[in-house]
Every structure is written in C-alpha cells, then in structure tokens.
From TrEMBL:
<protein>
    <submittedName>
        <fullName>DUF4403 family protein</fullName>
    </submittedName>
</protein>
<dbReference type="InterPro" id="IPR025515">
    <property type="entry name" value="DUF4403"/>
</dbReference>
<dbReference type="Pfam" id="PF14356">
    <property type="entry name" value="DUF4403"/>
</dbReference>
Amino acid sequence: MNRLRPLFFLLPLLLSGCKVTKPVRPMESYEDPFEEQVSVINLPIDIPVDELQALLNQQLYGTLYEDNNLRDGDKMMVRAVKQGDIEIGIDSQSITYSVPLDLWIRYDLGISTAEATGQITLDFKTGFDIGADWEIRTQTAVAGYEWQQKPRVKMGFIDLPVGFIADLVLRNSKWRIATAIDDVVREQFNLRKTVEEAWKEMFNPILVSEDYNTWLTVNPQFIGMSPVQMGNNRIQATIYVETRPSVKIGQRPDPAFPRPLPPLRISEVEGLDFTLHLNTKVSYDEAERIAKQELIGESFSYGRRSVTIEDLEFFGQGNNIVINTTLSGTYNGSIYLLGTPVYNTLSNKLEIKNITYTLDTKNFLFRSAGWLMKSTIKNKIAENVNFLLDYNLKDLQEQFQEQLREYEVATGVILNGALEAVDIRNAYLTADGMMVDLALKGNLDVRIRGLSSAQD
C-alpha cells in the first residue's frame, strides 16, 4: 500500500497537465421514425350531360343516311338529314338519345315517281360498363322511333308505306349513329389513357416552391373508383388514390420507378374531402444553407472579447437537433447547442424549444470562456432556426394552394382544389434531415378540358 502512495501524489499533477481545449462533439444517434400513414386523395369527376350533348352534336351533323338507287329492291330513294339538336337523357343505368331527322323520299310508282317529305325522331340507348383494365365499353342500340310528320306526297294522293319507310331509315342509319355515339364516348372518355397518364405522373417529384426548393412526390400505392352515378342531368364518379406522399425541402429527389396501373376496383367512397399526410423532409444541407445566410459573419462581443460565426452544422442526437457552431476570434473552435422540435398547437408552428448548450460545451465554457455564455449568440441562433422552420411551413400552405389551381394531372384533365388547413402531427430526426408529418386538409375537383370546351 505504501508503494502506491507516491502515485496518488503524482495523479493531480498529471491531470493538471491535460488541459481541455475544446468541447467534445456529441455523438449522432436517431430514434426509430414514426410509421408513415396512408393518405387517400379523392378526385370527384362531374360531367354535365349538356356538355356531352353539345359534343355529340358537333360529331353528328348533315346527312346521316342516303339511298340514291331506285332499283335496289325497295323502290325508293331516301335522304335523312339531321333536323335539329340531338337530345340526351339519363337514367340510373343508361344514356338515351333522340335524333331528329328530316326525310326526303322519291317513290317509284312504276309509270312515274313521286316525292315526299317527312320528319322522324330516332331513339337510341347506350349501356356501358368499365372493365378491370379501366376500359369503358359501350353498346348503343335502337330504342324505337316516333313520327313528327308522316311523309306527304307533294303532288296528288298516293298511299306511301309509312311503316316500311320508318323501318328502312332506322335500319340503314342506326349503324352510323350508334357507331358515332360509341366513338364519341370512347374517344372523349378514354378512361384508361387518362388514369394511366395521371398514375405515372404521380411518381415524379413536383416543384411546389422554387424559392425554398420544396418538392412533392405523391407515391401512389393504389387507385380505384366509386360506382358511376347518373341523375340530375349529370354523370358523376370519384377516383380515389391511396398514397404515401412525401415533401422534401432541398435538392430534387430522384423519381420513383412507376409501378404498373393496378386493376380497377369499384368501391364506395366516404366523403369528398381529403386529408393528405405528407412526410415532409428538411435536409440538414438545406437547413444549413438558409441558416448560414442569416448567421455567417455575425459577430458577438462581450467587453473586449468577440467572436464571429464561421460555419454551422446540423445533426441529430435522439429526438434533439445538435447545432455545431464554428467560431473565430477570441475563441477559435466549435460550440454545440441542443434543441427539441416541438409542435405548438396554439400557433400551428414547429418550434425548436429549450435550446441550450450541451453539457460538455457548458462545462468547457465555465472553465475556459465563460464570457461567451453571457453573450447573445445562443438567442440569435435560436431565433434564426425557428424562423427557418416557421417560415417554410407557413409558406407551404400558400405554395400548395397555388399548385392546386388549374393543375393538369393528365392531358386535358384539370385539377382544382381548395386547401383549408395544414396541421403538424409529428416531428422527428433522421440521419439526413428533419422530418415532419404534415396533414393537409381540403377538397378537389376534376374537369375534362376537351369536354368542357365543347360548346365554345
């Protein structure tokens, strides 16, 4: 025991020679992230029947049927010309069409011919369904006819076969009219093409704010549709998209590889509003870039001592953010501050609360540079870090609202929306940035540009 006693006398001398010159850098560590929530975007589609009617009248006009041969067995020449607008009606299962026609008839009497005119309305009905491949399939059939004015001979009295004439006109014009109706529906409502184009687009990042390098990626997981509803002179349905959207503030994220369009699933949709959960990312690089604009070069004095901020670095330790501040001047080196991201329910802002020096930094400053603790440097950093997050999150709602005006999600398909609120649900740190779970609430409306301009 006596042999060890000299060592105890030497130990204080050895320790006094080990002078600490700078605080120890905190160790990086990160908690498990919150589980991402699936968001559902409802896209209501509303097609006024009068717009469909205008489009069909553009497609069908003039002579719809003409027979110029008296010697083909029916003893007649017939010309059927569209007389007025086609009228469309709907019921719960199908679309009906009334096609008014002016008729000109030349009838073979054997020794001479006679001309007659008349007016007839042909009625058609279109049934449709949507396959698992998102293709609209229609089938238009004749529903009947009604004479508005039976054929009358211009000269003399001749008993014309009125029923035969009606059947002849119907039989020979129904193919063209029914085909035209099916073509209009197929071309103007190419559902698969529209949905597939929108589906692929949702895998590409969208620049929401150029000023703050804010990118939205929708990341669709599934897409389906509600049953089609027809009534009150409108055709309505809702397309719903299950998504895991994310927002990144920083460099443009790489596009995700688009998955194939899933088979159509028809199911009821509850409500038309949406709540979109956005896993918003503020990269440390981007946070540092913006904070440096405000803080680099800032000097702080206390008496005859002063320091200047030369650099900033952000990283995580658990659920706290570490702010590594490099100083030059009376003190040269780093000091480390800790803060906790907290959601303020009253202001609806994300704030960095309880910013303080790390324990090792505090001990170092007490021993070597206590005057720094009396300066305003900590408060200045805290103000600018809060401003960074507050301003971006506050501005995000305005940027998203701007994107929801006249946004073309697919060729000719225009999206408009109203963003009612932005709530912050969770905040946590990852190895490369600060993550915030935002909940955006609002509603959307979809219109088809080509259809809506049919009457222009």
